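In the previous chapter we treated chains in isolation. Here, by contrast, the input contains four separate entities that must be folded as one system, with a combined length of 418 residues.
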Amino acid sequence: MPRPSQPILSRDLIFRTALAKLDRTGGFTIPEIAHKLGVSVSPLYHHVKGRADILEGIRGLMADWDATTTDLPWQEAVAAWARNYRDSFAKHPAAIPALVAQTITEQSVLNQYESLAAILSDAGFSSRSVVLSVSMIDALCLGSALDLGAPSTIWQRSDEHRSALQNAVDNATLGDDRAEQAFQLHLSLIIAGLTDLLSSDLESETTVP
Amino acid sequence: MPRPSQPILSRDLIFRTALAKLDRTGGFTIPEIAHKLGVSVSPLYHHVKGRADILEGIRGLMADWDATTTDLPWQEAVAAWARNYRDSFAKHPAAIPALVAQTITEQSVLNQYESLAAILSDAGFSSRSVVLSVSMIDALCLGSALDLGAPSTIWQRSDEHRSALQNAVDNATLGDDRAEQAFQLHLSLIIAGLTDLLSSDLESETTVP
DNA sequence: ACCTGAACACCGTTCAAGT
DNA sequence: ACCTGAACACCGTTCAAGT
């Protein structure tokens, strides 16, 4: 059974296979991927540097979003950015813990942060406000992503003993929408905060006539 | 060299040793802990169920906070809760990725969430508002903790090419305080949002006279 | 009860050797 | 260039056997 002369492997194929395994089983292993692709383990290392490289490739797959929807008011642009980032995680919740443990090197993702900073900067935010805003939006998206990827056991009802939290969960009738609605509200609070930041930035600018 | 009849090992000792290694090197291994404690590997399993058990033990050590500072207005109680939770992570940034990947089973931590829900519930928040509020505060603390534990590479200056984000970071003069100040502002925004939630909860209550 | 030493079934990674 | 097969240095976990 000779191998086809067409190359079997590619970085993209390896990344997609790993992401699929991650989605289905919550983890992946180099031997698993090799087996799935019908090759032995070592040729994989001809295409990727190692496990960390594969994880960064997966990050790139997930964050591959459509376009920088420009020409929007900054509030909407920031909201779209955050929603997009969170949704890219939401589609692959099982991948989140693995990604979150690893430093971002994937250029496309770094570019996304850059474009967020540009949106704010162009809107007139001071340097300090840009840094604080990006930090908060980053925490929002990562925190919400974790809530999706490994939701706290606190949200699952245990009939052991009545508690304030359990009662709230039972009565809230939010169901599966809990994480989504919390994200939406959280995002709107941050945008309101950014609006205030911008106002005081513009005020102190006029102080220097 | 006979072993002392005094027991050498204990769950607490194992947890502390593992946390110390985690703090120093960013990871730990069962053989490493055994070696550090001067025993072989297997007796560890006489005290802990396995690696996951050790991680939960570490979570318990970290979250072991002083007291439920009651008798505070709910805004301050919530702020103290969040600060306490975040700070407990901040002291052990290297442990965060490992903890965040694992479901919480440690009872003391679950109790903390419970006490947060009780604060809100007692203050008059509706069930829905309690669930949304706890979700947001959870995301805030976890997101900020990750920012501390594995800060994005975006915050490190690379002289490659000028960018909106790099310029902002260079000019912001926030330095090491970036994560701290972002957390503080973020927290105040959420508390402002909770205040609004409570207002509408109380309004709709009076609608039913 | 608490320990030792050895074993098991895995990892990720590398390397000589084939076509 | 791309693959095979085997090896290496590790893991986490278990178990018979000692005291």
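The two ends of chain B are 80 Å apart (CA to CA). Residues 3, 5, 7-9, 39-40, 42-43, 46 of chain B lie near DNA strand C (CB under 10 Å from a C1'). Compare these points with the single-chain example from earlier in the chapter.
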